[in-house]
Amino acid sequence: MLSDFVDRRRSIEELEGDRWPAPLGYSTNLVHSVYELRRQAIKDLAVEDLRRLIAQDIGLHWLLPVALDFLRETAPQEAAAGWYDDDLLSAVLTRRESVWRNAPQLARHLDETVRMLTDLSPYIQREVENFRTNLSDVL
What we know:
Layout: H1 12-16, H2 29-38, H3 47-55, H4 60-81, H5 87-93, H6 97-101, H7 104-116, H8 122-134
């Protein structure tokens, strides 16, 4: 598995060795949520938590492999169910091109996983096409 190197008992904060100060009182709910999620053990993060952190580019070194493993594990049953519109997949697909260029093996893994899926929503299909177009030389 891609995420075998990730100690899921530890938090992003612990893995990064970077404790963020408490957010300012007037910060948004999203900011407060992200700060809290950074302190939780990765094993305790729900899929929605992974999506939120990845969409904010938090802990990508550890969370992208975890998310890609999850997407690969669930792809067969998702394909069997038909219609596919997934927020986690969207968050992963829409990371900056440089993220994937710095980890081409992850980009190829994601591309292989997406090829397992059928009947993607138009939104996801557009994100897949952008991902593949931008990284065609890597894939």
